[in-house]
Structures are given as structure tokens and as C-alpha cells.
Amino acid sequence: MIAHHKAKGMRPGQRRPAKELCSECGLCDTYYIHYVRDSCAFITQQIESLEASVHGRSRDLEQDRELYFGVHQEMVAAQKMEPIAGAQWTGIVSSIAIAMLEQGWVEGVVCVQSQPGDCLAPRPVIARTRDEILAARVNKPTLSPNLSVLEEVVASGMKRLLVIGVGCQIQALRAVQDKLGLEKLYVLGTPCVDNVTRAGLQKFLETTSRSPQTVVHYEFMQDFMVHFRHADGSEERVPFFGLNTKELKEVFAPSCMSCFDYVNGLADLVVGYMGAPFGWQWIVVRNDTGRDMLELVQDQLRVQPVSEMGDRRAAVQQGIAAYDQAVTLPMWLAWLVGFVVQKIGPKGLEYGRFSIDSHFVRNFLYLQRHHPQKVLSQVPKFAAKIVSQYRLPKV
After folding, report:
1. What H or E segment, with its residue span, contains residue 367?
2. Contacts for 318 with CB less than 8 Å, ≥ 6 apart
3. I want to staple 166 with a disulfide (CB 3.0 to 4.6 A). Which of 44, 192, 221, 384 is the partner?
4. What is the per-residue pLDDT for 8?
5. How many CB atoms lie within 10 A of CB 301?
6. Residue 37: helix, strand or coil by DSSP?
């Protein structure tokens, strides 16, 4: 039994097979490191073939919404009618996990609580109660070894499991899921971009927030602001255009600078914010399993159709040079630009495309400059098509 192969993963401090591109997903901390060459998103990029095995087909590159947002049956914007206290937004992810556990769909939920004494440091767990799920509410904006609990899953004898995770974790999970002895795996994904190590997070907070020591969570939001929430309940906003790009260019993890699965294309169901109006969550149903998961909480949600407005292309093109040159506006001007962009800039799904375009171009250039040998194998066809819309600086 695989469960008896404890401690067959890598020792702390040992160099990972993906080397500097390792996203610390946790797979290499387990017996399943034996499959890392074929499962790691940064060694063997296989999102398109895995889409076909998970959803029954790969995304249609001629259909704009699928090109950008992946295989899906439906996209909506939603809020919980009765938000969960202390949740990062209204608590849709936690509500789905609780419903699946309490209605017997699953025996456990892989999610991320905080390390004792540090609310921003991740601690992956297998939650078996409502309270354990609620203890994991609020995103942890750091690299998290979620898959490090896979051996514990197998040893427990669980047959039905929900995993909540981000793209790199889910790609590795999908590649090894048939080896876990599960009868049913459910995957609830969140969009993910620009994670950091805990040390990198500290630098970001100290560079950006007025009170870095009291931040309990933050998010880059579709109003072109970074929203910080502090321990006393107060909120702080900082315009994207005022970030200290020169200081922050080296903060984000190399894995995140090499990733093209922003929208978590291999999850059954995705809950985030990037394609929804401000204050709402964007929900993507990718397959029948995802539809079943959403229907469990449908009566708890206020729902509206997704929408889109504006044109992101000029802003993305201008942003390429600004990022390359590490341009930082004076804060008064950053606020002014932010105000104007909020009024006339891209919204809804077009904001989602703006964010995807900006990050895909940045990441493509990063690979060209730092890992040119990996460009052909690491950049999926859909990402290459998106990047091809823009004029790129010479490398």
C-alpha cells in the first residue's frame, strides 16, 4: 500500500526537481514524488491534454470565452445572500465545502488553515468538520504545499474527497489522481496569480501597506486597487499604478512568473472574482461534477449573468513597456489614473481578459529571458495565441 511509504518525499532543504521554478505544491513532500516528472506543471506542461481527460475535451481556441477562461458549461456572478462572518468575500467556497461534507458527498476537504501565530502563513489540512473548514476561510497569498497531505488521505482510507486549490496544485493532482485509490474526487479551484514566499510577502507588505504588521488579508481587485484588510477591521486601498514596481519585480515566485493557468482550467468548479462586477464572485462551471457542486448551494446565492464592458488592449500594450521599465507613478497621479480607469476601463469579463493578457505577456517575456529553452514546452497553445496579439520588446 502506498500509505506505508511515509517519508519517501524530499527532505527539507533538498533541491526540488523543478529547481527554481518549483511552486512548492507539496507533491514532492510525499511518496508521489515518483511521478513528479510527468505531473509537475513546471517540468511537463500538459494542461491541454489533461483538460481533455477531465472535461471530455480541450478548450476551443476559436471561441473567445473558452480561449481565455477555459472549458466551461456556464459562467455567472454570485454573492451569498447571508455572508459568512470573517470570510474574505461572502463565503461561497466555504459554503460549498461545508455542504459537501455535511451531506455526505465527501469524507474530507483538503484546504488551507493558517500557521499558529501567523495568519498569512499556510497550513494545509484535511478538514473533517464544519469548524475545520471555517478555520480555513480567507486566502493565504503565499506558496502552499497543499498536496503534502496526499499520503494522509490514502492512509485514512477516504474514498470521497474534495480538494480546494490553485492551478499548479490541481495540475499535479489530476496527473496522479488515479493512484490515490479514490472512488470520487471533487476539485474546487480558485484563480491564482503572483504568489510569493512568506519572506516575499513580507517585502510586498512593507513596500505597499501603511501598516504591514496588521494585514490579515489582501487582494488585487477589479477596481484596479489592492485591497488590504487589517486586524482592527479597517480597510486600506492602494492603486495598482502606485505600486513600487522596481522593488516588487523580484518578489513574485519564479513559478508564478512561468504559469499560464491563471483560471484553474482543470478544476470542476472555479470561484474567484476576476470576471465579475466589483463585490461579486465569478463562478465557472467546467463540467457536470462542477454543476452538481454548485447546485448544492444554489438556494443560498444571489446570481446575475456575467457581463463585459470596455476594451483592454491599449491598456495592456501600454503596460508592457511600463512594467519593463519599472515605471512607478507618484501616488497622487496613481490615484487619479486609477479613478479614470475605474470609470472608463475594462469591466467584468473584459477586466478578466485584461488581467490574463497582462500576466501572460509578462510571463512569456520572463521565460524568454530566464528560461528560453522552456518557452516551446511551457507555453500552452491558448497562451501563445493570447500573447501574439501584442507587440513585445526584443529580448
Report:
1. helix 349-370
2. none
3. 192
4. 62
5. 18
6. helix
Q: Residue 34 falls within a domain, yes or no? A: no
Q: Are 160 and 183 in contact (CB under 8 A)?
A: yes
38 located within any domain: no
Q: What is the mean pLDDT of the chain?
A: 92
Residues of the chain with pLDDT below 70 are 1-15
**pLDDT tens digit sequence for 107-124:** 999 999 999 999 999 999
371/259 Cα distance (integer angstroms): 13
- Grid coordinates of 115: 500557521
Asked if 269 and 93 count as a contact pair (C-beta separation under 8 A), the reply is no
Phi and psi angles of residue 228, each rounded to the nearest 5 degrees, phi first: -110, 140
Tell me whether residue 272 is in a domain.
Answer: yes
Q: What is the pLDDT of residue 250?
A: 82
Q: Among 388, 382, 385, which Cα is nearest to 71's? A: 382
The count of other CB atoms within 10 Å of the CB of residue 242 is: 20
* Cell numbers linked to 233: 477591521
Domain that holds residue 212: 47-395
Burial of 236 (0-12, 13-18, 19+ CB in 10 A): middle
Question: How many structural domains are present in the chain?
Answer: 1
- Interacting residues of 227 by C-beta distance below 8 A, sequence separation 6+: 218, 219, 221, 235, 236, 237
- Whole-angstrom Cα distance, residue 248 to residue 230? 21
25 falls within a domain: no
DSSP string, 304-355: EE--EES--HHHHHHHHHHHHTT----HHHHHHHHHHHHHHS-EEHHHHHHH
Q: How far apart are CA 304 and CA 39, in angstroms?
A: 37
Is the alpha carbon torsion for 68, 208, 226, 41 positive or negative?
positive
- Interior/surface letters 112-137, b for 16+ CB within 10 angstroms, e for the rest: bbbeeeeebbbbbbbbeeeebbbbbb
